[in-house]
Amino acid sequence: MPVRVSCPYCNAGFALPEAPPAGRADCPRCGERFPVRAGDPGGPVPPPVAATLPPEPTRTKTPWLVPALVLVLVAGGAAVWMLRDRSPAPVPVADPPPDAAAVPPLSLRGLGYLPPGANVAFAVRPGPLLEYAARTGQDPVALLTRAGVPASALGALAQAGITLQAVDHLAGGAVVPDADGGELRFAVALVLRRPVADEDAFLKALKARKTGPDRYEVEAGGAPLKLARASANDWVFGWTERDADPTGGRELPAGLREAVAERVPADATAWVATDGGRWADKPAVKLAVGVAGRKELLPVLAGGRAAVAGLSPGDPPRLRLHVRTADAATGERLRAYFRSKAPGEVGGAGDWANLDAPFDPAAGLGPFRPLLDDAGK
Predict the structure, then answer these.
(1) What average pLDDT does range 158-177 have in this prediction?
(2) Which of 76, 110, 118, 337 has the CB geometry, 3.0–4.6 Å to 114, for a possible disulfide?
(3) Which range among 152-156, 157-161, 188-192, 197-201 shows the weakest confidence by mean pLDDT?
(4) pLDDT value at 116 more than 90
């Protein structure tokens, strides 16, 4: 008997001929797999959603590319969650695009505004992505969301009247505390290529309320945040006023700094990195995994210590993933797993496993579906 279901990720309603034996279904709109709760079999069954219907970015999707990438993105999940929005506005795109030249990742000024002791860092440079989108005739906003950038963050930029061409980069990071205590901290720096044309309109769009000199309470992507004006070009958003620190000039901790310098490609348009740690033991990670309904991933996270992922929009675009595992034996098992399941080149030695794989934005996560399925096993 037909079963009516609704995807929790994009809210698409569709029908299944019967309840699947595995208790999970794949959404024909966004491609996410989710647990099935049988609907009322006696009521009318809505028509199935066409497979060609474009995805609707109503909720940030976590790209669980491989178990190690889970480590990266769950650690930064709290930061992504705070920028979510259910109906982001499109980001206007104008000519010419920003500079697409390769840039050493540690030279990004926005990283200097991250909270001291950050163990997660990420950055987005629109320039390389916009150049690739213009070259291939694709929508840059769709490409960014497929790369893992929250659509709500892009919508928040549009809400504030900021075009992608005006952005030099976004840099963010978090302090994810260990099990023995500590405070979860988070900040994102918006670094513009030129000053905001009308700061009053910019602040009004963010519903800003002034709390001190160059300090504000704002709404970004539907979330209440603190905002500091570091300069005419630099604006720092934070979870608290202490996180939205306009001082700048700080360096990443040594371990995270080394990982970014050595493993993030200079032509990356989006990257995320973690410092070393026992991520499965961190309360914030456990909470994020629980909210995502993926508690089965905690044993997977227990085998990892650090990870770096970067997306470069070259010809073809490439996803580069570097994972530091708990020990050399686990590293060898992960390298063997990559060789058997992952498309691309596998490298690394000792406790490191590396994957350099082509990434087709049009195909999205399709080629990585076997890895997605394995992530929960």
Answers:
(1) 87
(2) 118
(3) 152-156
(4) yes
What's the chain look like in SS3? Answer: CCEEEECCCCCCEEEECCCCCCCEEECCCCCCEEECCCCCCCCCCCCCCCCCCCCCCCCCCCCCCCHHHHHHHHHCHHHHHCCCCCCCCCCCCCCCCCCCCCCCHHHCHHHHHCCCCCCEEEEECHHHHHHHHHHHCCCHHHHHHHCCCCHHHHHHHHHCCCCHHHEEEEEEEEECCECCECCCEEEEEEEECCCCCCHHHHHHHCCCEEEECCEEEEEECCEEEEEEECCCCEEEEECCCCCCCCCCCCCCCHHHHHHHHHHCCCCCCEEEEECCCCHHHCHHHHHHHHHCCCHHHHHHHCCEEEEEEEEECCCCCEEEEEEEECCHHHHHHHHHHHHHHCCCEEECCCCEEEEEEECCCCCCCHHHHHHHHHHCC
pLDDT at 41 exceeding the cut of 50: no
Query: Helix, strand, or coil here: 140?
Result: helix
Greater pLDDT, 165 or 253? 253
Confidence at residue 153, expressed as pLDDT on a 0 to 100 scale? 67
Query: What pLDDT is attached to residue 45?
Result: 36
Angstrom distances, CA of residue 357 to CA of 35, 209, 320, 343, 345: 29, 46, 6, 6, 6
For 182, list phi and psi in degrees, rounded to 5.
Answer: 115, 170
Q: Which residue blocks in the chain are alpha helix, DSSP H?
A: 67-75, 77-81, 126-136, 140-146, 151-159, 199-205, 254-263, 283-291, 298-301, 328-341, 369-375
Residue matched to tokens 């910019």: 202
CA distance 45 to 6: 12
Confidence of residue 256 (pLDDT cuts 50, 70, 90): very high
> Residue 83: what pLDDT?
32
CB 64 within 8 A of CB 92: no
Could you state, in order of their start, the residue ranges of all structural domains in the chain? 1-49, 67-294+301-375
Would the pTM count as exceeding 0.70? yes
- Distance, CA of 95 to CA of 140 (rounded, Å): 13
